[in-house]
Amino acid sequence: MELIKVLVVDDSAVIRSIVKESLSQTAGIEVVGEAEDPFVARDLIKQLNPDVLTLDVEMPKMDGITFLKNLMRLRPMPVVMLSTLTTKGADITLQALELGAVDFIAKPSVQELLATQASFQDVLVEKIQEAFSVDQRNFKLVDLVAKNKNDPTLSTSSFKGIKRANHLIAIGASTGGTDAIKRVLTQLPKNSPPIVIAQHIPKAFSLRFAERLNNNCSLEVKEANHGQKIKEGHVYIAPGDKHLEIVSKNGALFTTLTDGPEVNRHKPSVDVLFDSLINFADNVQAVLLTGMGQDGAQSMLRLKEHGANTIIQDKYSSLIWGMPGRAFDLRAHTVEAPLDMIPNILLNYAQLSKSEMKEKLNEH
């Protein structure tokens, strides 16, 4: 097993100590250094050449976002943010993900951390290993950063309208998904088919995520509430602590939020969302974007078997090709495509009549 070298950047000596202790107990991970501020971190990166960086979002002398911008410009590398579960923390973390951070982990208070160190350790180790895997499969991190920074605003695709009532797009994503979802939604016009989304994200972040998307899209994006009627041109994002399901009543579709157990270790779960669409799968497009794990893969296969158009993000454009890769292995997809091609695939399919749609699916 290749050794993962980690640099821990946090202004709290206690947090640094807990993070170091948590990681040092795991075979294959070595904490090669600690930094109390970004200036010390900058020097240690040059000296130690770490593989992964953990970074506090709120730092002295230079804030975490400014440091991350400089890092991604000068020495792109996988970064896992330590984020407070607050509105301010959510905004900073979502901005960090847009700038190229691989993932984040909730940062409890010192007292909470001391009480829950074992569970914190498990999540932290998993995040570090995920971040390291980005480089291991030759993902061009620098290309992602350049794309996010230098691309002009993506143009909204032209769309003549939906040809079938209650046509629905369902999207599932995890690691890297917040940026991938943004890139898809910003290319869609305001008369797009309705979209429902299960993104693995904490409760404290899902509302801010929806609000940030709403400010950048032609579509109306909102965090889903229980019992909403699904409308054209609207996007409904599952709250970070609820499963989102869709039900059909009296010729219309409605959201349902449930508080059941985690599925595939997640709530919201993509499998729960996708499985709720089985009864009207022939009028559904299901999309799996970047993310670690296998959530959504089995249910995507079931949707395909019931007539849905199923789309996975390709390996090169995925930050982590876990969920779409698992769907690929199961042959659960009808289409595999780069991220920036997915919006037009969705719109072109939505414009097909029912007979044209069936003919298209029979080609696969």
From TrEMBL:
Residues 162-353 form the CheB-type methylesterase domain. Keywords: Chemotaxis, Cytoplasm, Hydrolase, Phosphoprotein. The modification 4-aspartylphosphate is found at D56. Its EC number is 3.1.1.61, 3.5.1.44. InterPro entries: CheB-like, CheB_C, CheY-like_superfamily, Sig_transdc_resp-reg_Me-estase, Sig_transdc_resp-reg_receiver. One of its GO terms (cellular component) is cytoplasm. The keyword Hydrolase applies. This is Protein-glutamate methylesterase/protein-glutamine glutaminase. The gene is cheB.
